[in-house]
Write a structure and sequence with these properties.
This protein is of the alpha/beta class and about 220 residues long. The protein has a single domain, classed as Aldolase class I (TIM Barrel, Alpha-Beta Barrel), CATH 3.20.20.70. The chain is built from 8 helices and 9 strands. The protein has a 9-stranded parallel sheet. Helix 6 links the parallel strand 6 and strand 7. The longest helix is centred in the C-terminal third of the chain and has 16 residues.
Length: about 220
Protein backbone atom coordinates (compact mmCIF):
# COMPACT_ATOMS: atom_id res chain seq x y z
CA UNK A 1 0.00 0.00 0.00
CA UNK A 2 1.61 3.21 -1.19
CA UNK A 3 1.02 6.38 0.85
CA UNK A 4 0.93 9.82 -0.75
CA UNK A 5 1.00 12.90 1.49
CA UNK A 6 -0.73 15.96 -0.05
CA UNK A 7 0.65 19.44 0.62
CA UNK A 8 -1.51 22.44 -0.19
CA UNK A 9 -0.04 25.72 1.04
CA UNK A 10 -0.32 29.37 0.02
CA UNK A 11 3.38 30.05 -0.50
CA UNK A 12 6.79 28.52 -1.10
CA UNK A 13 8.04 28.81 2.48
CA UNK A 14 5.06 26.99 3.99
CA UNK A 15 5.33 24.30 1.34
CA UNK A 16 9.00 23.72 2.10
CA UNK A 17 8.24 23.51 5.83
CA UNK A 18 5.56 20.89 5.22
CA UNK A 19 7.93 18.86 3.05
CA UNK A 20 10.24 18.53 6.05
CA UNK A 21 7.39 17.00 8.07
CA UNK A 22 6.56 14.22 5.62
CA UNK A 23 7.05 10.89 7.44
CA UNK A 24 9.45 8.26 6.18
CA UNK A 25 6.62 5.81 5.42
CA UNK A 26 5.24 8.12 2.72
CA UNK A 27 6.29 6.96 -0.74
CA UNK A 28 5.11 10.06 -2.62
CA UNK A 29 4.20 13.69 -2.01
CA UNK A 30 1.47 15.57 -3.86
CA UNK A 31 2.25 19.28 -4.10
CA UNK A 32 -0.50 21.72 -4.97
CA UNK A 33 0.97 24.44 -7.17
CA UNK A 34 -2.22 26.53 -7.45
CA UNK A 35 -0.95 29.48 -5.45
CA UNK A 36 2.78 29.17 -6.04
CA UNK A 37 4.98 30.93 -8.56
CA UNK A 38 6.70 29.18 -11.45
CA UNK A 39 10.03 30.09 -9.84
CA UNK A 40 9.06 28.11 -6.71
CA UNK A 41 8.77 24.80 -8.52
CA UNK A 42 12.50 24.13 -8.82
CA UNK A 43 13.08 24.86 -5.12
CA UNK A 44 10.31 22.44 -4.19
CA UNK A 45 11.74 19.74 -6.43
CA UNK A 46 15.20 20.18 -4.89
CA UNK A 47 13.78 20.04 -1.36
CA UNK A 48 12.37 16.53 -1.67
CA UNK A 49 14.07 13.23 -2.38
CA UNK A 50 10.69 11.55 -2.77
CA UNK A 51 8.74 11.29 -6.02
CA UNK A 52 6.47 14.31 -6.45
CA UNK A 53 3.01 14.72 -7.96
CA UNK A 54 2.31 18.24 -9.22
CA UNK A 55 -1.29 19.44 -9.03
CA UNK A 56 -2.73 22.74 -10.22
CA UNK A 57 -6.49 23.06 -10.06
CA UNK A 58 -8.80 25.91 -11.03
CA UNK A 59 -11.80 26.98 -8.96
CA UNK A 60 -14.17 24.73 -10.91
CA UNK A 61 -12.12 21.81 -9.56
CA UNK A 62 -12.11 23.32 -6.06
CA UNK A 63 -8.57 24.56 -6.51
CA UNK A 64 -7.02 27.98 -6.03
CA UNK A 65 -5.58 28.81 -9.44
CA UNK A 66 -7.04 32.03 -10.87
CA UNK A 67 -5.25 32.31 -14.21
CA UNK A 68 -6.33 31.07 -17.63
CA UNK A 69 -6.45 27.41 -18.60
CA UNK A 70 -3.40 27.92 -20.81
CA UNK A 71 -1.50 29.39 -17.84
CA UNK A 72 -2.56 26.49 -15.64
CA UNK A 73 -1.22 23.99 -18.15
CA UNK A 74 2.06 25.94 -18.26
CA UNK A 75 2.40 25.41 -14.50
CA UNK A 76 1.96 21.66 -14.91
CA UNK A 77 4.38 21.62 -17.83
CA UNK A 78 6.92 23.47 -15.70
CA UNK A 79 6.57 20.78 -13.03
CA UNK A 80 7.18 18.08 -15.64
CA UNK A 81 10.22 19.93 -16.98
CA UNK A 82 11.54 20.25 -13.41
CA UNK A 83 11.59 16.49 -12.94
CA UNK A 84 8.34 15.97 -11.05
CA UNK A 85 7.67 12.28 -11.49
CA UNK A 86 3.91 12.77 -11.92
CA UNK A 87 1.49 15.55 -12.78
CA UNK A 88 -2.26 15.46 -12.19
CA UNK A 89 -4.58 17.12 -14.71
CA UNK A 90 -8.38 17.18 -14.43
CA UNK A 91 -10.45 15.34 -17.03
CA UNK A 92 -12.52 18.50 -17.58
CA UNK A 93 -9.49 20.18 -19.18
CA UNK A 94 -9.87 20.82 -22.91
CA UNK A 95 -8.56 17.85 -24.93
CA UNK A 96 -6.11 19.98 -26.94
CA UNK A 97 -4.51 21.23 -23.72
CA UNK A 98 -4.26 17.67 -22.36
CA UNK A 99 -2.59 16.69 -25.65
CA UNK A 100 -0.04 19.50 -25.22
CA UNK A 101 0.59 18.39 -21.66
CA UNK A 102 0.96 14.75 -22.69
CA UNK A 103 3.60 15.72 -25.26
CA UNK A 104 5.58 17.52 -22.56
CA UNK A 105 5.23 14.52 -20.24
CA UNK A 106 6.55 12.10 -22.86
CA UNK A 107 9.55 14.35 -23.45
CA UNK A 108 10.36 14.63 -19.73
CA UNK A 109 9.37 11.02 -18.91
CA UNK A 110 6.77 12.30 -16.44
CA UNK A 111 3.71 10.15 -15.82
CA UNK A 112 0.38 11.85 -16.53
CA UNK A 113 -2.46 11.34 -14.05
CA UNK A 114 -5.85 12.35 -15.44
CA UNK A 115 -8.36 12.77 -12.65
CA UNK A 116 -12.09 13.16 -12.24
CA UNK A 117 -13.89 14.12 -9.03
CA UNK A 118 -17.58 13.46 -8.51
CA UNK A 119 -18.38 15.83 -5.67
CA UNK A 120 -22.08 15.00 -5.14
CA UNK A 121 -22.42 11.24 -5.47
CA UNK A 122 -20.88 7.99 -6.63
CA UNK A 123 -22.00 7.27 -10.20
CA UNK A 124 -22.82 3.78 -11.42
CA UNK A 125 -20.01 1.36 -12.20
CA UNK A 126 -20.86 1.68 -15.90
CA UNK A 127 -20.45 5.46 -15.80
CA UNK A 128 -17.21 5.24 -13.84
CA UNK A 129 -15.78 2.81 -16.38
CA UNK A 130 -16.75 5.19 -19.19
CA UNK A 131 -14.93 7.95 -17.32
CA UNK A 132 -11.87 5.75 -16.96
CA UNK A 133 -11.90 4.87 -20.67
CA UNK A 134 -12.16 8.55 -21.62
CA UNK A 135 -9.14 9.38 -19.47
CA UNK A 136 -7.18 6.47 -20.92
CA UNK A 137 -7.98 7.56 -24.48
CA UNK A 138 -6.72 11.06 -23.69
CA UNK A 139 -3.34 9.66 -22.76
CA UNK A 140 -3.51 8.99 -19.03
CA UNK A 141 -0.71 6.86 -17.63
CA UNK A 142 -2.69 6.68 -14.41
CA UNK A 143 -6.41 7.27 -14.03
CA UNK A 144 -7.73 8.84 -10.84
CA UNK A 145 -11.40 8.70 -9.85
CA UNK A 146 -12.69 10.19 -6.60
CA UNK A 147 -16.39 10.09 -5.72
CA UNK A 148 -18.56 11.30 -2.87
CA UNK A 149 -19.77 8.34 -0.82
CA UNK A 150 -23.29 8.96 0.52
CA UNK A 151 -24.18 5.35 1.32
CA UNK A 152 -22.05 2.48 2.52
CA UNK A 153 -22.92 0.59 -0.67
CA UNK A 154 -21.15 3.28 -2.72
CA UNK A 155 -17.88 1.86 -1.44
CA UNK A 156 -18.63 -1.46 -3.13
CA UNK A 157 -18.99 0.36 -6.47
CA UNK A 158 -15.51 1.81 -6.03
CA UNK A 159 -14.15 -1.58 -5.00
CA UNK A 160 -15.62 -3.17 -8.12
CA UNK A 161 -14.24 -0.35 -10.26
CA UNK A 162 -10.77 -1.00 -8.88
CA UNK A 163 -11.14 -4.75 -9.42
CA UNK A 164 -12.15 -4.31 -13.07
CA UNK A 165 -9.39 -1.82 -13.84
CA UNK A 166 -6.77 -4.03 -12.24
CA UNK A 167 -8.07 -6.99 -14.24
CA UNK A 168 -7.62 -4.89 -17.40
CA UNK A 169 -4.11 -3.96 -16.24
CA UNK A 170 -5.03 -0.26 -16.14
CA UNK A 171 -3.08 1.68 -13.53
CA UNK A 172 -5.56 3.63 -11.43
CA UNK A 173 -6.33 5.48 -8.22
CA UNK A 174 -9.82 5.08 -6.79
CA UNK A 175 -11.03 6.72 -3.62
CA UNK A 176 -14.23 7.70 -1.86
CA UNK A 177 -14.84 11.12 -0.34
CA UNK A 178 -16.83 11.90 2.79
CA UNK A 179 -17.04 10.25 6.18
CA UNK A 180 -18.57 7.03 4.81
CA UNK A 181 -15.89 6.87 2.15
CA UNK A 182 -12.99 6.49 4.56
CA UNK A 183 -13.10 2.72 4.30
CA UNK A 184 -12.54 2.97 0.55
CA UNK A 185 -9.21 4.68 1.13
CA UNK A 186 -7.94 1.46 2.62
CA UNK A 187 -10.04 -1.00 0.63
CA UNK A 188 -9.23 0.38 -2.81
CA UNK A 189 -5.52 0.26 -2.02
CA UNK A 190 -5.81 -3.37 -1.01
CA UNK A 191 -7.54 -4.02 -4.35
CA UNK A 192 -4.72 -2.43 -6.34
CA UNK A 193 -5.15 1.35 -6.24
CA UNK A 194 -1.80 2.97 -7.12
CA UNK A 195 -1.83 4.99 -3.89
CA UNK A 196 -3.91 6.32 -1.02
CA UNK A 197 -3.78 9.91 0.17
CA UNK A 198 -2.91 10.44 3.85
CA UNK A 199 -2.84 13.95 5.34
CA UNK A 200 -0.26 15.03 7.90
CA UNK A 201 -3.04 16.33 10.18
CA UNK A 202 -6.64 17.61 10.15
CA UNK A 203 -5.67 21.04 8.80
CA UNK A 204 -3.72 19.47 5.94
CA UNK A 205 -6.62 17.52 4.41
CA UNK A 206 -7.24 18.29 0.74
CA UNK A 207 -10.49 16.32 0.35
CA UNK A 208 -13.44 15.38 2.60
CA UNK A 209 -12.94 12.06 4.35
CA UNK A 210 -9.20 11.99 3.77
CA UNK A 211 -7.43 10.04 6.49
CA UNK A 212 -4.84 11.71 8.66
CA UNK A 213 -1.60 9.91 9.40
CA UNK A 214 -2.85 9.11 12.91
CA UNK A 215 -6.12 7.64 11.55
CA UNK A 216 -4.28 5.64 8.91
CA UNK A 217 -1.95 4.12 11.48
CA UNK A 218 -4.98 3.22 13.58
CA UNK A 219 -6.60 1.36 10.66
CA UNK A 220 -3.38 -0.37 9.69
Amino acid sequence: MQICVPIREINRLNTLKKLQKVPKEAGLVEVWLDRLNLNDIKDIRNASKRPLIGVCRAKDERGGFTGSEQERIKVLMAAAETDFEYIDCGLNTKPNLIKTLKTACVKSKTKLIISKHFWKKTPSLEDLLKTANKAKNLGADIIKIAAQVNNWSDNTVLFELMRVLKEKKILAIATGMGEKGKISRIGCSLLGSFLTYVALDEKSKTAPGQLTLAEFNMYI
